[in-house]
Amino acid sequence: MEQMDLFIGGALTGAKEGEATDVVEAATGEVMGRVMLGGAADIDAAVTAAEAASASWAARDPRERADVLVRFADHLTARAVETATLVSRQNGMPITLSTGANGYFPGLVLRYYAGLVRDAGEPDVRPGMRGTRTRVERTPIGVVGAITPWNYPQTLAAMKYAPALAAGCAVVLKPPPETALDAYVLAEAAEAAGLPPGVLNIVPGGRDAGARLVAHPGVAKVAFTGSTAAGRAIGAVCGELLKPVTLELGGKSAAILLDDVDLASYLGMLPRVSLPNAGQTCHSSTRILAPRARYDEVVDAVTDTVRGLVVGDPLDRATQIGPMVSAAHRGRVLDHIDVGRAEGARLTTGGGVPADREAGWFVEPTVFADVDNSWRIAQEEIFGPVLCVIPYDDEEDAVRIANDSDYGLAGTVWTSDEERGVAVARRVHTGSIGVNHFGLDPAAPFGGWKASGLGTELGPEGLEAYRRPKSIYLPAGSRERTRKDPV
Ligand code: NAD
């Protein structure tokens, strides 16, 4: 499979200064395709195309934009299984997860934002505090530079382009080299849906192309998902340029098992909540906080569950744990496991490469017990199938440990008493948290606190990130005068 063009101005276009690279299948380590990565001149061309398309897209009736987005959703949804498979081959995500997240979720997000702008309601005219009135309008922010990582490429792209397009912005999307192939499904669906040329442009590329997009004067807003280190660098540039930016960054979330937990219900959800995509998920609850009185029971049960997970071919529907995205990333995960051993954590299962998986970038699902929350394995994002089980004394102590982290992305609370769970959830310093469940909802904001990011995606808040409020001050009673005398 080859994709040697970029999608600029509504057409597949040869790169001006690109460089081709191999795409490697995560489960086999074999080359599965080749893709062109754009350079600075290609980013410039894409921004120019977006700028040219911007004004007329912004001026369209929101209901027309909504119609286009619904058609876009239809085309993506019709190809959901094909797209999910392509993603899984590139990044190793188990197909059952990929089908929902990369296949169907983008269509849901598009439909949600189409609905929001279609039902915009009456103009927002507010009675003023001094007898006058103010009409508050929401103006599309301008061209958006969207930068995405490889772990949920379609999901995370949709969380940016769907609200941006609905708001009336044109977008330049820069997918990462590891998962560049599936981005072209977006190009085809956008074209089939009648999205005007230049409203969505796609230039796969590496860090330099991303940096060019961030700093480009034609880009009015940056939407980034990726590592905290890259997020800080991008945030610094945007700060200097006073450019609005949304940053969705790393995490090290806690699963707080309260003393009344129904352990079986947590264990049933563990693969999806604590090790989704083999831990290559920003919101994974990888620190398991267990009450001291039930600590041994929890360690044994978590160990048994993790030992029993099905590791294998991501395209097999039975697979729960696929490979790491790349050899380099697997190396980083294995290094972290060595750190855990050296820090004195007790390895109860896993800890290496599965004996029957020589090809591909697999890591055994791994559990460390007797972990101190100050250790590196409890503080650093490993982004692999590695869990830490940490004891706590009482509810107060559990909340303290959960909050003792640079990150503040997500988490879960497990209890037989939902109200109690909500009360604990409220005290955890994260942008989202689940009680006996975790799952992103297109209608609810998702975003990180502390080193996990700035701003939010999804929900009505996600739309406002692509619009600027504008106050038009009106004198008292001018509406009545206008009615009587239209001149
Ligand atoms: P990464 O930061 O290395 O790369 C992410 C994207 O940014 C890629 O497209 C890359 O080419 C680009 N990039 C890197 N440095 C850049 C720079 N200085 N300027 C502009 N662009 C740059 O991250 P990764 O390893 O691909 O992804 C894994 C990370 O993403 C993890 O830390 C994970 O927690 C995070 N993540 C966060 C969320 C969230 O919603 N909070 C979701 C998924 C992943």
TrEMBL record:
Keywords, comma-separated and alphabetical: Oxidoreductase
Superkingdom of origin organism: Bacteria
Entry annotated with the keyword Oxidoreductase: yes
Matches recorded under PROSITE patterns: ALDEHYDE_DEHYDR_GLU
InterPro entries: Ald_DH/histidinol_DH (IPR016161), Ald_DH_C (IPR016163), Ald_DH_CS_GLU (IPR029510), Ald_DH_N (IPR016162), Aldehyde_DH_dom (IPR015590)
Pfam families per the UniProt record, alphabetical: Aldedh
Keyword presence, Oxidoreductase: yes
Coiled-coil parts of chain: none
Family: Belongs to the aldehyde dehydrogenase family.
Cross-referenced PANTHER family: ALDEHYDE DEHYDROGENASE (PTHR42804), ALDEHYDE DEHYDROGENASE-RELATED (PTHR42804:SF1)
Name assigned to this protein: Aldehyde dehydrogenase
Organism: Actinocorallia aurantiaca
